[in-house]
Amino acid sequence: MTETLTIAVPSKGRLMEETANFFKARGLNMQKIGHDRGYQGEIEGYDDIDIVYLSASEIAQQLKTGQVHMGVTGEDLVRENIIGADQRVEFLKKLGFGYADVVVAVPECWIDVHTMADLEEMAMEFRRHHSRRLRVATKYMNLTRQFFTNKAVAGYRIVESLGATEGTPIGGTADLIVDITSTGETLEANHLRILDDGVILRSEANLVASRAAEWGGGAAEIRLEVMSKLNHDPNDEEE
Questions:
Q1: 37 or 71, which is more confident?
Q2: Going from the N-terminus, what domains does the chain have, and what CATH number goes with each?
Q3: CB under 8 Å, gap of 24 or more: what pairs does 151-156 form?
Q4: Which of 31, 93, 102, 109 has its CA 20 to 30 A from that of 121?
Q5: Looking at residue 2, what is its pLDDT?
């Protein structure tokens, strides 16, 4: 039976810092064990909680397989990597940072394309004139397929993006993109714009629990204690 609760948190960058600050403000002080660049950690005063530092996408995969009990990662990564996410994990708490929208963006010069319906019309015209489907560059293949199906858009094929997705239309390897954006500045710099109904998901960092993990032993009880602290608003103490 599991006697400890394992929580996966981002291993680097702003997400790691904001996660640590969020927990610390609520009395849960995370710290690494051993080397500063190590991947193991703990919460001060809690011998029954293990912290593991992973990339945001790895956290989604570990939640999927139940190798960790809980994790902090973007909703976009959870829904991309876990088909039927609401049945396989539990979204416990939105954390108020890590905001990013998953969007459909087209070249600014496509002056007659403003909606997904316009995109499908263009795709049909494009295929008649060029004998191929529109190419959509993305790292979000599952979210793209689901969204395009829901919008009745079929005249496309996905080009998996391994680098800077927003540069693929200018580079000639794709015609449009599905990618994340927070300010829209990178899209604008690459002469792209979001379709009027092209927001697939408004994502932010979430605390997520795995339904596949072993919740026996003390894990379920520790979870209740952790959530009690994380649901407390430290701003209430200032009033």
A1: 71
A2: 5-98+204-238 (3.40.190.10), 100-202 (3.40.190.10)
A3: 151/116, 151/117, 151/120, 151/197, 152/116, 152/117, 152/120, 153/116, 153/119, 153/120, 153/123, 154/120, 154/123, 155/120, 155/123, 155/124, 155/126, 155/127, 156/123
A4: 102
A5: 54
